[in-house]
Amino acid sequence: MLTSAPMQTHPTSPAELLPAALRLHQDGQLREAAAIYEQILSCHPTHPDALHLLGLVAFQLGRFQQAINLIKRAIAVIPSVAGYHCNCGEAWRRLGKLDEAIHCHREALRLNPDYLEAHINLGSAFKQNGKLAEAAACYRRALQINPNHFGLHNNLGNLLKEMGQLDPAVVSYQEALRLKPDFAPTHVNLGLAWQEQNRLEEAIASFRRALPLAPQDAETHFKLGNALQKQGCAAEAIPCFAKAIELQPSYADARINLALALQEENQIGPALRHLWEAVHVQPDYPDAHWNLALALLLSGDFRNGWNEYEWRWRYPRFSSRPRQFSQPKWNGAVLAGRTILLHAEQGLGDTIQFIRYAPLVAERGGRVIVECQPGLVSLLKSAPGVEQVVARGQPLPHFDIYTPLMSLPRIFGTTLESIPAAIPYLSAPGSRRFQLGKPPHAKLKMGLVWAGGSLHQKDHLRSASLAHFAPLLEIQEIAFYSLQIGPRAADLASLPNRFAIADLSPRLHDFADTAAAISQLDLVISVDTAVAHLVGALGRPIWTLLPYAPDWRWLLERGDTPWYPSMRLFRQTLQGDWTGVITRVTGALQSRPGVRSEGRNLMSLSPGDLSACPAQAEERIGRELERVA
User: Fold this and answer.
1) Whole-number CA gyration radius for the chain
2) Are 610 and 624 in contact (CB under 8 A)?
3) Beta sheet of 502-503, edge-to-edge order
4) Calpha distance 430→427 (Å, rounded)
5) What is the pTM of this model?
6) What's the average model confidence in pLDDT over 358-372?
7) Is 11 helix (H, G, I), strand (E, B) or coil?
8) How large is the angle between the packed helices 200-213 and 184-196, nearest 10 degrees?
């Protein structure tokens, strides 16, 4: 006789089903767990834990609205469970509904003031909402509850760094690393905080500590390279960027920075290869195109360089913003009597250099109006082809068409051989003329400029110390005049008494005044700044001192420049070596007939001697010369 098998019983009550579902849930078997939660709810549709846990499954699957709907049903059954409110708040935050998220987390904390996760999540909602101070307060309250929470210290550091509170951010990162010293991202975060404080040695040390912990992380290699590059150690930065590229071949920023480091070493060929590759891997990346443009121009490839240079308007850190006019932009077509606006962009030197194109524009049959920096208005009125000059910020007259000034080389197809060089193309207004005296025994009247504007991105490379010029000041047959303006003109006060330079800055109210002074000088020696362009545009002799890695317009290795026939270039042969440059300049001066470097400078004028009217200044100079003689 056959007997039936014992009947198998299956758990049906929530108390029996929930433990099995939770085990599946914790093991990551979300769909299996959800099936059991749904089984419970089919019999007990208001079971709060099943509703809440099914909501968590939805949350983990990215179904945030479904999660909110389920957890809200649980809250409706039991509104006093802080965890329900906290998890509902996180779902709201993931949906970007931050006010709702903040409300839920506050309700959780009302129910349980020491609820660690609710403080953390409330801080995250505040941060996402841009309320950084409130977020920091939440993180600090959470750390009072659990001071050994490594992640909280790290996240508080990130928040404080974002707020610009770098010192407390460093403290937070250091505390995080005390708790977990082998966590590479925190070493990187600490390095970034040091770097923002310009404490590059500490930054580099932090990045180096991160590398053995994350040797395959391209970002860490990249950040170490950045810090080394900022420290002026381009040669050490190069292998860091190369490693980042090896680990992540499509890393466009690493290729760009590697190219920049190579350019700092004047390795233009390899730099160009990486920049072309950066454009290839990320074709719409303005940073890649902008840096490629500069490298191409530096290499002398003007045909490709000017085309790439148009990407400057999409480059987010470009120094000028694109102008928005209702008039069309000029493409080089015949103007047929229309009025064209040429507007300046970037620096003063750029405007001086490229105003040379105005007569070419006028030859296309147009009436040329120029908008420029206020300090250049009087000077640019002397430019051929220019009918009207307007200071930037003043109302513009009627015009039919426009173009940015530095788009003209591309429009005219400028190559190295076709640079417009009708020199001089600027002149000092006759009304600005004033006389510079000269000691009777001086063979030369020489102007000096040792520093550019401090806002220039690479001013620390292009500007020199006045102290570097001391060997020049020993040459007794030269009368020196300072054309330096701005804060660095005060450097004259630091000179030893045996040196004397006539300070012209009180008379130099704009570039027309500077041009009037230059027109009376035999030679100007200047670092790479606007005055160098002005001297070249006036056709006067100018010796320009260049850093080891020069700006694109000076090309490489040449001692002359096709932009200014009267200019001679003296380049650093080692990074930062102004001493070597001045030694060569001094030797070149001493090779001139009648010039030697024995004895004291014959000119002995104190700063401000030329601040009076020209006649009074000339009389003062005459008395001084009689005394020195």
Assistant:
1) 35
2) no
3) 502-503, 478-482, 444-449, 523-527, 542-546, 567-571
4) 9
5) 0.84
6) 97
7) coil
8) 170
Dihedral (CA of 311, 315, 320, 322) sign: positive
Q: Residues with Cβ < 8 Å from 256, sequence gap 6 or more?
A: 274, 275, 278, 287, 288, 291
Beta strand 386-391 pairing with 401-404: unpaired
Please check the confidence at residue 341 and state whether its pLDDT lies above 80. yes
User: How far does CA 79 lie from the centroid of its chain?
Assistant: 52
User: What pLDDT, on the 0 to 100 scale, is given for residue 606?
Assistant: 34
Q: How many whole angstroms separate alpha carbon 400 and alpha carbon 441?
A: 57
Q: Average model confidence (pLDDT) for the chain?
A: 90
Res. 134: pLDDT tops 60:
yes
Task: Kindly state the percentage of the chain with pLDDT values over 90.
Answer: 82
**Distance from the Cα of residue 231 to its chain's centroid:** 15
Position with higher pLDDT, 7 vs 443? 443
Using one digit for the tens of pLDDT, what is the confidence trace for 554-596?
999 999 999 999 999 999 999 999 999 999 999 999 887 656 5
Q: Which residues pair with 527 in a beta bridge?
A: 545
pLDDT surpasses 50 at 601: no
DSSP 235-247: HHHHHHHHHHHHH
CB 351 within 8 A of CB 379: no
Best CA proximity match to 538, nearest among 424, 379, 406, 380? 424
Contacts of 350 (CB under 8 A, 6+ apart): 344, 405, 406
Q: Considering only CA atoms, which of 545, 541, 529 is closest in space to residue 472?
A: 545
Evaluate whether 106 touches 137 at the Cβ level (below 8 Å). no
Letter string b/e over residues 172-208, b meaning 16 or more CB atoms within 10 A of that residue's CB: bbebbbebeeebbbbbbbbbbbbbeeebbebbbebbe
DSSP 546: E
What are the DSSP calls for 38-57, one per residue?
A: HHHHHH-TT-HHHHHHHHHH
Q: 3-class SS at 399?
A: coil
Residues whose CB is less than 8 angstroms from the CB of residue 190 and which lie 6 or more positions away in sequence, other chains included: 157, 170, 173, 174, 177, 206
3 state SS of 447: strand
Q: How many CA atoms lie within 13 A of 335 on its CB side?
A: 23
Say how far apart CA 289 and CA 256 lie, in whole Å: 10
Whether 351 shows a pLDDT value over 70: the answer reads yes
Enumerate residues 6+ apart whose C-beta is below 8 A from 220.
184, 188, 207, 210, 211, 214
